[in-house]
Design brief:
This protein is α/β, with parallel strands linked by helices. Helices cover 33% and strands 23% of the residues. The protein has two domains: 3-124 and 218-253, D-Maltodextrin-Binding Protein, domain 2 (3-Layer(aba) Sandwich); 127-214, D-Maltodextrin-Binding Protein, domain 2 (3-Layer(aba) Sandwich), CATH 3.40.190.10. It is built from nine helices and 13 strands. The strands form three sheets. Strands 1, 4, 5, 6, 7 and 13 form a six-stranded mixed beta sheet that branches. A five-stranded mixed beta sheet has the order 10-9-11-8-12, with helices on both faces. It starts with a helix and ends in a 12-residue tail after the last helix.
């Protein structure tokens, strides 16, 4: 990024931040109301203090806006899931931002129908290649004809099927990890969000973080379309955080695997 671009981003952010500053009755900037799922590590955890990628990103945005954060913790219901959570929180006006919405191609259409808008992604989470520690496999290129596992009906499972790999589907991540630990499969693909912060079974290591677009889930902030000042300020803040490496640092700090591991963790 050039110096002129950096100066432009700082000026743009400053203007948008001022526009997005509601004032409380006492004259101080009002706290930024943020809705976030209460127990969803590594993205959010309702601890004291709260932690997670979504939490840190929201806190950093609020700090750049000169505002504190007022958390509204969301419990996802079996019926309605994220759609119901959006309807009863940011869409209803009980908070200004919904942090941590996973998006895929075409999901913007649903948000638009709700009068909501998504920010640019602040983190993209894919799949990691796992192998037994003694394995000579260092990347997907080395898998060859060996049996490779994935949780059934996930993007990773479909990726292996489309690629003609010697695929072995599993009912869940625990079963896949157990098979890897016992050497029943030569490798496995597991969602990186499941690996972050969790101890892998003894003798199982991360070899590679796959970058294929079909394997990525992007996470965004959601605001009301009518709240143009806040939406613009959030977008400018995320652009600045992306440019200075802060978003990558937040993801790494919360245990999200990044890049090639070459021997694993």
């Amino acid at each position: 990024m050039t110096r002129s671009t950096a100066r432009f981003l700082r000026r743009l952010f400053g203007l948008l931040a001022c526009a997005a500053l509601p004032v409380s009755a006492g004259g101080a900037p009002a706290a930024l109301g943020v809705c976030v799922v209460e127990q969803n590590p590594p993205f959010s955890s309702r601890t004291l203090p709260p932690v997670g990628i979504d939490v840190e990103v929201a806190q950093t945005i609020a700090a750049r806006l000169g505002r504190a954060v007022h958390w509204q913790w969301i419990t996802l219901q079996e019926r309605g899931g994220l759609g119901r959570a959006l309807k009863e929180s940011v869409q209803a006006g009980s908070c200004e931002l919904f942090a941590g919405l996973p998006v895929t191609d075409g999901s913007d259409d649903d948000l638009s129908a709700r009068g909501l808008v998504a920010s640019q992604p602040y983190v993209s989470v894919g799949y990691v290649l796992l192998t037994p520690a003694a394995s000579a496999i260092g990347s997907m290129a080395g898998v060859g004809a060996q049996k490779i596992g994935a949780v059934t009906a996930t993007p990773a499972d479909l990726y292996l099927l489309a690629g003609g790999f010697n695929r072995s589907p599993f009912a869940g991540s625990a079963a896949l990890l157990d098979a890897l630990a016992k050497g029943q499969v030569g490798a496995g693909l597991l969602w990186a969000g499941r690996v972050a912060g969790d101890a892998l079974p003894a003798g199982v290591v991360v070899r590679e973080v796959l970058q294929a677009p079909a394997l990525q889930t992007r996470f965004v902030m959601v605001s009301r379309r009518s709240d143009t000042a806040l939406t613009g300020a959030v977008e400018a803040a995320l652009g600045a955080l992306q440019a200075d490496g802060a978003l990558d640092a937040i993801a790494a700090r919360n245990g999200l695997p990044t890049g090639k591991q070459h021997g694993g963790r």
